[in-house]
Model the fold of this input.
Amino acid sequence: MSYKQVHRKILRALQKEDLRKGSEAATKDELKKRRYAIEAHKYSLKWAEDVKNAKSSMLSDIESSVEKFREAFEGKNKHFYFAKTPENLKNIIYSIIKPGDVGVKSKSMVGEEIELRQFMEGKGIKIYETDLGEFLIQLANEKPAHMVTPAVNMSEERARELLEPVVGEKLSDVTSMVLGVRKFMRKIFFSADFGMVGANALSADTGSVIFITNEGNGALTSTLPDKLIVITSVEKIYPTLLDAIKAVTTQAIFSGFEYTTYVHIINGPYDTYGPKEIHLIMLDNGRIREDDLKETLLCIKCGACQFACPVFQVVDGAWGHIYTAAIGVPWTAITNSKDTARSLAAFCLECGKCREVCPMKIDIPELIRKIKAREV
Amino acid sequence: MLTNNVEIKAEKLNSYEWKVKDLVIDDRIGTFSKVFQNHGGYFFAVERKALYDTMSGIVKGRSSLVYTNLRAEYEETVKKLGLDRVIRLDKNSKVDAKKALFDVEVGIMEPDALAAESGSIILFDFDATKSFVAFLPEIFIAIADESLMYDTVPEAVGALTKKHNRLPATIQIVNGPSRTGDIENKIVRPSHGPKDAYLIMVR
Ligand code: SF4
Done:
């Protein structure tokens, strides 16, 4: 995206009165919830430090961390794949599933990063986003506005417009929308050929995959279909299972959830029911070789900095490409396009609010300054 | 060569510092009950003899249930509830789980541990039966006694790993009923999992 394109996107968002009001209200609420959650779980401040140290130790030599995880993960009916580029990842997926297959997917930022859903749909693989926010984004054919709450900017009216034709009944309020989607999705969960999940953390000692959800969509995605595919990236590896548990807890608290309803720790296929095979694909996509902006990889994607950002508060997802708001700028530089990142960087106010709320204490304004200073 | 070395891994875990020193909870049951209810769950503490009445109040008007991991006396109590369709699920039960559980209304089990600080129900699941019972029905009931209670999730996971000396296929942590706030931040229950989650603490 050029500077002009970013500018236009932001101007368009500014003209939408209802979106601006919605964003403002939602972001204020989220920050309040976050403050309350940290206050109620003071130990999370210490855990955030532990998580940062654990993560830093793995990031100092990413290739050997990947190797450690691979060794611990691989086993009977557990297959590990390394994908250097998005194309590699897509080819691997294509070797695991085939056209005509139907899959259920729970939220994965890595999936968004490489537009995986769009790729699979193009190949004749039917894929359903099962997180309600992501499902709405899928129906609207848009990009998520926020890492944790992808449809944070969508109004009830817009959601109804999108859902009624799919669910096939009148949906009078938010409750009937949620229940309508539950009913619609249930049949798909029970008959899907594969489930696809992202990971919030991985542990190098036990080869475990940890992910969190509130809706229970991840629970059904990871237990009902015969095949489970995990899409993840190299910076999610922690030395131990204990570190990984601390990481997902910290992420939930700093997102303002306190506790998510579900934490799933997957160590292997079951003896009887459930998935018979697990395929884990680990994406690099520019992370391993990154030097200048390496601090970005400490990010645990809690989304706090997005809500704290004064630009996000007014235009939300419009400032960003796939990863939005301040931390979205270096993420874009690493995983997508250096030029787009430079165009985005120009809109940073350098207020430093993001750095204040970040549990990993990432110096986000400094990362953005580095991107601004780069030669065109 | 591919090996399945879950036992070796479990042994390694025994040396970790799972106890969270700055998080010792005096009134574990009181804390659990408060936090679990904050998450939208229901908590009952009952005498053994009141278990039947408590459960029959919860399942009133329902006609199907599935259970797993219940001691014989609880199994008897569950059968006495008299629902039309009662499914026992274990790894030998040869139930076509997907067919049988599609619309089952109530799921009942004894969990493996509880964590007071986060109001968590913890399942060590080797064969997916516990996950099915906890995730698929509209109502989830866990029956536990005080001996299952730990201060925190890490502490509980450490203790269970030591006890089994083996990592299960999954460790599931359930902190309440399924919910979503994805449309305009309005919280709705249920989303894809149970609408109601109950913890019955038997004294
Ligand atoms: S940069 Fe920090 S605050 Fe922002 S999402 Fe990542 S961890 Fe959270």
